[in-house]
Structure of LAGLIDADG homing endonuclease:
Amino acid sequence: MIASSKLSTIIWLGDITSVPKGWVIPTSGKKLRIRVLVKDGFREFVIMTKDPISNTPKVIKFCTDVFGAIVEAPPYALPYENIPFTKPDNKLR
């Protein structure tokens, strides 16, 4: 008797039991939306600016640079956009 025959069926992401074919290029055109808390202080980590051309908010600095480098590392595309948000009371919760 082979030990692997005692293993259960693998349930993959999406509750499927067939082996995924691998990464495919997304066709929906939707980007992963990352909400980034912009808080007063610690400007070395995250700040919000305005794009001079489109006048849309843009989040920049260390935290977003690190995330961007991680997303670009795999050999497939993962389109994303940072969505800045603030809390009126300037508290995390």
